[in-house]
Amino acid sequence: APSGSGYTKIYSNGYAFATLEADGSITAWGGTNNEGTGAPSDSGYTKIYSTQYAFAALKADGSITAWGYSYWGGTTGAPSDNGYTKIYSNAYAFAALKADGSITAWGDASSGGTGAPSDSGYTKIYSTRLAFAALKIDGSITVWGGSGTWGAPSDNGYTKIYSTNDAFAALKADGSITVWGDTNNGGTGAPSGGGYIKIYSTQYAFAALKADGSITAWGYSYWGGTGAPSDNGYTKIYSNAYAFAALKADGSITTWGDIKSGGTNSPNAPTDKGYIKIYSSDSAFAALKADGSITSWGNFDSSWGNFESKHINAAPTDKGYTEIYSNAFAFSAVKPDGSIRAWGDLGYGGAYVSGHNLALGKPATQSSTYRYSDPVAGYAVDGNTDGEFLNKSTSTTEYEQGAWWQVDLGSKKNIKQIIIYNRTDCCADRLSNYQVSISDKADFSTHTHQQDFHVAPDPKKIIQLGISGKRGRYVRVQLLDKNYLSLAEVQVIGVDL
Question: Do 487 and 394 meet the contact criterion of CB atoms below 8 Å apart?
């Protein structure tokens, strides 16, 4: 997150954040494949929108600038004219609406980046993962894009449209519901009758709320289609990709859906009252109280056998926060003075760590070097994060017990974070049982920090370790079993003492 204050709002795509200042200038951060890079350097922007991999910003004159991953709505394809009033998006495409109700789309063609209706009179656009549905003044609906377009109603009178990954649900003024799209995503099974006032969704299920606060859910049962509370009095429903969380007037919360994502019987879900709003990442929730305190829960990975610390108990412990924002893997909370506190996955904007890469270009050694192509230790500190072995950017040892790699930072440093880029073309599972150590001695006979990691059989290609200000001159990565040790890059973020 950026330092300082004065930011007015934070936006996100799946992998990066972008914040808007009072003068309409933009700062973006996060992402690993250009999802947050290329933000415009001028000012005057009023709002930012996003696909999963790109951003699009709207100016007061209705002109649009897009950045991020080009193929999915980023640096190419945005309209060059002005007069647009709002931008909508699905996972891979944007659709912009003008005051006359005409629509321009760009991004992935198979996801609605092309095929938008040529007429006007549309008032709002909705989306599934790969499709769009536009609502006209008379309540009729036009759909285009990929899955989720089949079976759309031909009548009119609809007031709002909702969606899961691949299904739509449209609500009429009398509270009746019509659904279409993938049957496994809520495209069938909607309740009959009327009286519903709003519909919510996970990626695979819908939940509809009545005026008395009762809830009906349908869709994929495991991810929220069943298990909704049978009582009433709920005022609003929130969701992430796989679970729902419903809020009552007294600030108590009921959850259902995937336990690993903060749903039914999820550990650490709040049992107290006083919450005023709930926010979500891809598989976690964060709830805000009136005093500005935050509780966060979810993000369980059964293959690890425990709850990860990316979201659980990682929220700030102080009070005074007024708003929370999220992307797929991280949260950011803001205070009235514009200061920001981020938590979640470090690689996707979950924390801002001041400092620089202390390891870049420093002397590196390893226990041995793979004999056939000379993948030397220095490849892991050359500034190239490419994980392809044949591109000569990945260090590799021989097959041996306790293989290790280490870097000499030159003198004792204040280390705040270590980021490990794994090999990507194959063999990621080699980095499944390892140890990271910090020491003042090259032989590591003593150490100032040491931590073991026992990760899933298919570990992440990027691994972020929050070290919290440990001090030392040498950093070592060492396997705890017998295997090759392959590293694309090791970044040691910190400052000089």
Answer: yes
Structure confidence at residue 303 (pLDDT):
31
Asked whether the whole model's pTM tops 0.90, one would answer no
CA 113/CA 69 separation, integer angstroms:
14
CATH code: domain 7-348 is 2.130.10.30
DSSP 268: T
Beta strands per DSSP E along 423-448: 433-439
Rounded distance between C-alpha atoms, residue 133 and residue 305, angstroms = 40
Boundaries of CATH 2.130.10.30 in the chain?
Answer: 7-348
Backbone angles phi, psi at 406, to 5 degrees: -150, 160
pLDDT in tens, 174-189: 999 999 999 999 999 9
SS3 labels along 46-114: EEEEECCCEEEEEECCCCEEEEECHHHCCCCCCCCCCCEEEEEECCCEEEEEECCCCEEEEECHHHCCC
> Is there a contact between 187 and 181 (Cβ–Cβ < 8 Å)?
yes
Report DSSP letters for 356-423, one per residue.
EETTTT--EEES---TTT---GGGGGSS-----GGGT--EE--SEET-EEEEEEEEEEEEEEEEEEEP
Cβ neighbours, 10 Å, residue 433: 16
pLDDT tens-digit profile of 447-471? Answer: 888 887 766 555 666 676 766 678 9
Q: Which residue has the tokens 């999802």?
A: 35
- According to DSSP, the β-strands at 449-454 and 433-439 are antiparallel
CATH homologous superfamily for the domain 356-496: Galactose-binding domain-like (2.60.120.260)
pLDDT tens-digit map of 424-445:
888 888 888 899 999 999 999 9
Instruction: Between 334 and 354, name the one with better pLDDT.
Output: 334
CATH 2.60.120.260 domain span(s) along the chain: 356-496
